User: Fold these one by one.
Assistant:
Number 1:
Amino acid sequence: MSLCKGCFDIHMHPAPDVTLRKFDDEEVAERIAKAGMAGFMIKNHFTETASRAQLLQKKFPQLIIKGGLVLNRPTGGCNPYAVENCGKLGGRICWMPTMDARSYQLKKHPDLTAEEAETYLYLLDEEGNLKPDVKRTIEAVVKSDMALATGHISAKEGLAVLHYGKESGVKILIATHADNPSDYYTMDQRQEVAAMGGYIEHCFFNVRRGDTKVGELVQEVKMLGAEHVVFSSDVGQPASPYPDEAIATFAQLLLEKGLTQTELDQCFKINPRRILVGE
């Protein structure tokens, strides 16, 4: 039996997109259904995907398929009205800025001028507090009963977002690919997320690229508890594997490094189901 059977993938990038992708919505749904996976989340950096998920769900009723919203510049940045609209469409995850996060762009392009950097999104004011529009957006996430994920913002911004989300009543908190060099969370910071009841997400993309050692992820699960960790693929790049392949490979590597089947099920099945369904 394939190790991806019964698993979810809460982080993948199908076409249509403004960037070339390996697969489209229908192709990936067919593969995931054939592999015996349980469902997935459609993610796009620049447009909501809840409407796409609704259409796809009708064709694949055996799967749980959800969409969401990333708060980059094309959706108005931290825009509570966009969140409200996505929630009405059934959106499940609201991500803070990703490709348009200022910290992300400065990591990728350290030669950006101050004027260029200013065109990207930073969520804290001069005193280090969340800006008012960010707070209003998080409050819209609460009203829409969506999960709140940090996207590509810095760990400093991300922790501020998650703390305010917790205080405001967000039920599901996610530190997005916390091992990614562009928004890296230290172990102390990951423990802080876990103490809030949040999830620390890790993606096969970073393992495949060599950013993260699988053994370190196993140690983290043992330290924080599997109930605080969620694994996903973050694939869709033209040279990447398909999500079912990525999840199966990721699971095999984790088992080989000492993760138990019970811990694996928690991170690939139970936790992501709660994120997608809200149960």
Number 2:
Amino acid sequence: MVKRYLLSMAGLVDVKLIQSRLNAICRWHRDNAHPDPGADVYVRGILRGIVKVHRFDHEPVQDARTLTFVHLEQICDALEVSRTLGQERCSHEFLSARRDLALCLLGFWAGLTGSQLSELTVANICFPDAGGLELAVQVKNKPLNRKDFSLYHLQALKKLCPVQALENWLSVAAISQGPIFRSVSRWGHIGSRKLSLSGINLILQRIACAPGPTHSRISSRSLPKGFAVWASTNGWNDDDILDYLGVTLGRSVFVHLTRRPKHFGSLSMLSDQELNDRPNY
């Protein structure tokens, strides 16, 4: 009876309400000296299945705000001011500004989410002699339940350069192995563990408010969305954007695509001929 009652509510009623109703039924049975239906293995299995399948059915979807290129410039200018105000190279203001600048620019130009930025290690990056930056980003292959790597190549840009920002952060932080993005204490001590996803989102929300306007919904997913908007306004078509980001249209599932050299217009330090001569990645 209880099992049929739970199944009749699955997908129609919020999961928390189903759990509270089952708890009330179990309490009534215990108070009246009846067998507890919540102790039945099949009832518990049905409840676990309902929670797993319908957990997020009735939760509103809050999409991350897009980080525009203009806002990115304002954030970087504010971080440069904060870095300048840092009186010592080992101060919290100086180090956190270097880290936040590298985090923001790398996430924007590479189209990386917070979880991917958190997993980046020194072993995953390479600064080739030809210039630029090569990244091996860990992505999870859900159908096969395994983790693969997707390769990126970032160009050095004339301004808002992610390559220079990352080099500066690794240099001042003296990071030669392990996670790239780490915590910085108020005394200027750099942690040994990677930043968590929530920590990266908090950093982005803090630096997004530095220029003035408040962007309360800025998160790590705002970075790839912002790059996609910038690329679209600068003449990239949908295929170029998806090829560069390495995602499909459906649910942003990473696929292994051959990444062709892309044109960054006036920001690029390479000529069109040099770009065309570069190999595919």
